[in-house]
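Running low. Any example?
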Amino acid sequence: MRQVLQFAAANGLDLMALCPPDLGNWLGEVGDADWIPATVAVDVMQAAALGSGRGDLGVAFAMWSNLRGFGPVSLLWDHCSTVDEATRITRRYLHLETSALRTHTELDGDEAAIRHFVMVPTRWGGSQFLEATLTLELRIIRMILGEDWRPLRLELEHRAPDNYRYHQSVFRCPIEFGAERCAVVFPRPDLDRPSVRGNTNVLRFIEQQLLQTDAHWPDDFLSQVRQLVAASLVRRSANLDHVAGQIGLSRQSVQRRLAEHGVKFSDLLDEVRMRVAEEYFRTAPCPNLTVLAHRLGYSEASAASRFLRERMGTGARSLRRRGHRRLS
């Protein structure tokens, strides 16, 4: 957020005027605060883009920013030997910097995709935050593989802005708006193509420092499970066995730890699905049950409709109206 404030000042953006008062209050605390809510980082960027009419604000910020200025995790990227190593290490320690974002690498034939998810509730959607983080991903890969590197395509879930020439000049590849994910897609061999800049010794030294920090990090088990469930929905793998494997615990251990918090896995699964559904109807320009079913981890639109009725006590039509009122 300190970099966002600097970017705004350099580009003549009055964030206090562009953001609602409650966000402005948090902006006033950024200089001295040790932390701010993750939702603030997402909402400030979206509010600034909406208020200024800059559909490229997230991309512009990420290109302007200091790539090594995002905390200790960003110091690792210079020394990674491959893109796969950089993404794996980032996923391992990203929670030390932000709970707003999670990433996942998806493999499909000859293609690899690094997918980004917003993990916190938002007021107006997280498109600018996601575009910014995907642009940072692009810069990291180019730092490893060279500035001439370009992806096969950029996929973005939201609709296209009126003008996205700047996006095209930065990514130098086809851009697919209205896609089913937010991801940078590139040839699969690029994951393991070695970098001449890699330095294993320095990388391990920095990682040891992060391990010490991680050892004192609060253990919010429920948040971990929620995040893994959210990241697994679209792959239809949001089940207890898969999540337990991702955490590194047995099925029984996860059940026992959830029981200590007074919840069942099915409770958290429903909670995450409700959050995804509410977010979708709040931000999608033309919501439909088929797309929602995909996001909730169902294969049929009828399953999504049944979930809305049984778990949320409403239907798609009511949620569409509610979402339109909030947007207007």
Summary: The chain is about 55% helix and 10% strand.
